[in-house]
Amino acid sequence: MKNPIYPSYVSNDININNTIILTGANMGGKSTLLRSICYNVILNQMGLGISIEDNNNDNRYYNDNNNICKVIDYEEYINNNINTINNNINTESNINNITNTMNNNYMSIFDKIYTRIGASDNLLEGISTFQNEMKECSTILNGITNRSLIIMDELGRGTSTVDGSAIAMSVINYISNTHSSRYNGNKIIRRPLLLFSTHYNNIIYKLLNNHNNTDSNDNTTTNNTINHTNHNNHTNTHINNIKPMYMKTLLNNNDIIFCYKLVDGVADSSLGIKVARLAGVDSKIIDRAEEILKQL
């Protein structure tokens, strides 16, 4: 994706395979990225050009100065070509490989786009910020189909860290596993796509480890191990239908450089104290906060 107006934009590639858990610093661009994806999906389904880059010059694509994207219902595409891939679909891993290939080349058609972004209460109805957040979450969970796009930005932040982490982890697990792609013997049933941003980095490792422990007892699955790669002090983990990614930042002493670049892995920190310094909070308070952080 690219910004069609701002000349020095930072383009980001994204391949949504069921669930992406997005972490990163405050002000790092997570919410902007999520909104950009929604905007491009809506523009695409309106039949308008979208802001992307590609090297393919196929004139069947939307074309904006040779920046193109093919629009196709990929569930229909796969099932129309089911005879050529039927022999290879016998595990969840193989289904994921096929849908990954399709996601790399096509933009899907969605029946619903659900967003849970921001935080606000409802004084007229006597609903607190957290209850309002949970009501919106309930609406999403009760309405999603295998053709839905779901965007959730920091779900669970309106309550305690423990409760919020538990709720966030449960919601991610429900959507990514209950609604995962499957093969019913005749065709692939497509999955909903979930993008979930959070500052609860600990839940990512728990989700991946729980998935790995479950799959280790399943003899039909061969590629469900977690790959840990140390890259700039970030852990790069990817297992089937859950993929962690983060918005890259660089530190120069107390200065933060926001790269606005989406990369694989899990962010080390949300850098909240450094962002508070950037916002002009008194240095004495910031210094004390850093001391307290080391003790926690």
From TrEMBL:
InterPro entries tied to this protein: DNA_mismatch_repair_MutS_C (IPR000432), MutS (IPR045076), P-loop_NTPase (IPR027417)
One annotated GO biological process: mismatch repair
Occurrences of domain DNA mismatch repair proteins mutS family (ranges): 148-164
Gene Ontology MF annotations: ATP binding; ATP-dependent DNA damage sensor activity; mismatched DNA binding
Record key words, sorted: ATP-binding, DNA-binding, Nucleotide-binding
One cellular-component annotation, GO: MutSalpha complex
UniProt entry tagged with the keyword Aminoacyl-tRNA synthetase: no
Matches recorded under SMART domains: MUTSac
Keyword ATP-binding among UniProt keywords: yes
SUPFAM superfamilies reported in the protein's UniProt record: P-loop containing nucleoside triphosphate hydrolases
Residues passing through the membrane, by range: none
PANTHER family reported for this sequence: DNA MISMATCH REPAIR PROTEIN MSH6 (PTHR11361:SF148), DNA MISMATCH REPAIR PROTEIN MUTS FAMILY MEMBER (PTHR11361)
Homology family: Belongs to the DNA mismatch repair MutS family.
Name listed for the protein in its UniProt record: DNA mismatch repair protein MutS
Organism per entry: Spraguea lophii (strain 42_110) (Microsporidian parasite)
Origin organism lineage: Eukaryota, Fungi, Fungi incertae sedis, Microsporidia, Spragueidae
